Amino acid sequence: MTDFLDQPLGLISFLQRPSLRSAHSPTAHPTKTQTMTLPARETILALYRKMQVIRLCEEQLARSHQRGLIHGACHTYVGEEAIASGVCAHLKVTDVVFSTHRGHGHALAKGMPPRQLMAELFGRATGCSQGRGGSMHLFSPEVGMMGTSGIVGPCILQAAGAGYSFKILKTDQVAVAFFGDGAVNNAAFHEGLNMASIWKLPVLFVCENNQFATEVPFSYAAGNPSVAVRGTCYGLPGIELDGNDVLAVYHAAGEAIQRAKAGQGPTLLECKTYRTRAHAEGMGDFTYRTREDVEAWKKQDPISRLRTSSTEQGIATADDFLTIDTEVQALIAEAQTFAETSPWPEAATATRHVYSEV
Ligand SMILES: Cc1ncc(C[n+]2csc(CCOP(=O)(O)OP(=O)(O)O)c2C)c(N)n1
Ligand SMILES: [Mg+2]
User: Fold this and answer.
1) If both were cysteines, with which of 117, 155, 270, 294 could 98 make a disulfide (CB 3.0 to 4.6 Å apart)?
2) How far is the CA of 6 from the centre of ligand 2 (A)?
């Protein structure tokens, strides 16, 4: 048999090689058993609401992409909402987030209004980057959203750099880097974690391990399937958790941010999750993973999981969730109308913001 490595990359069919398929089935994905105190009911409902804002916004963006309203790429965060929501719930407006190509959820969780996000993807002057950036250049320093990026990896170094300046300036701010499993074999990961560790910087490294980098399974790309253990290599805590459990993420992020702010240095969180839409809108999805895998992971949907566990435990009622759903639907509908009816940037201003204007 021809060795896999002898084949041109284009001929590789991952589905023919079971060992290259997703390493974690939704029923077998590891969850660190922790004793967690449940947050207050208001916090749980706020987490639910934030996840719904991200989900409904992303679904609306997917429809808009199909209608040709979006200019440039559109990578949705559907299925991964618990991570941004659980982490950002602890952040103040002065704390900062450095994001990825899949960053709509990070922007919304950090406080960007959906209308500003949608208008940006539609290329309108009312977008957060005045319609010049699109999905992968979402900037809103006013709310601590320091940018999405089409380049995999640098957000890790940028967050370490921000942490370094917070340490020098003796502020109580924290910097967060969100990144995918595709970033952890990039040099930025190793340099960033090591420097943050030796200088005990107030940084939180959040790996969103959705098990694929575009179509490449992490189980194929990584000699060691655990990202969390790599923290130990650099002398910082690495915690693996169920990234579809918003309360687990909220709990772990809360402790990590407390450590960072107390001067005890950075933490690495590996949040196991799964994206349930294609890598980017308009791309095919079933050459490297199966419909069955995706359907199985949809059953681990973080939003329905929170709704079910909260109603079962008597924390909230079906009516509470329905009220939130209705409010969020109205918010997203308003954002869509705002974005569609917003003006285009003036052509005469096309060269503004290219060079510094003093
Ligand atoms: C430095 C760099 N290398 C390659 C790419 C091409 N690329 C775009 S998205 C992507 C996959 C990233 O996977 P991951 O980090 O796991 O994020 P996910 O898409 O799964 O959320 C790659 C390799 C890039 N944008 N930047
Ligand atoms: Mg990935």
Assistant:
1) 155
2) 25
